[in-house]
Design goal:
Oligomer: single chain
Number of strands: 0
Largest sheet: none
Distance between the termini: 56 Å
Order of helices and strands: HHHHH
Shape: elongated
Bound molecules: zinc ion
Length: 91
C-alpha cells in the first residue's frame, strides 16, 4: 500500500478540516486523490460541503445584536489587563 494514499477512515478523520478549508495543502492533495478512486468518500465530501454551504448561507442572513460590537469591545478592554487567561471571564 502506498503510504501517501489515504484510507477511507483517514479521509473521514480529515473531513471537517477539508470542508472548513483548514486542511493543509498536502492533506488536500491526498484527499483529492482519494475521492477520485472512492465514490463513497466523494459522496460524503459533497454532502458535508453542501451542508456547510447551506449553514453558512443561513447564518449570513441572521443579524447580529446591535450592541454586540460594543459588548465585545468592552469585554476585551476589561480582559486586557488580565495576565491569566482564567481571568478572562465575563462578569
Ligand atoms: Zn474512501
Amino acid at each position: 500500500m502506498n503510504p501517501d494514499r489515504l484510507t477511507c477512515e483517514a479521509f473521514l478523520r480529515s473531513l471537517d478540516s477539508l470542508v472548513s478549508g483548514a486542511a493543509s495543502w498536502i492533506e488536500g492533495r491526498r484527499a483529492a486523490a482519494h475521492v477520485t478512486v472512492c465514490g463513497t468518500c466523494a459522496a460524503g465530501y459533497m454532502f458535508e460541503l453542501t451542508i456547510d454551504r447551506e449553514i453558512r448561507a443561513k447564518l449570513a442572513t441572521i443579524e447580529a445584536p446591535r450592541d454586540l460590537t460594543r459588548r465585545v469591545r468592552a469585554l476585551l478592554a476589561s480582559c486586557a489587563g488580565a495576565e491569566n487567561p482564567e481571568d478572562w471571564r465575563m462578569s
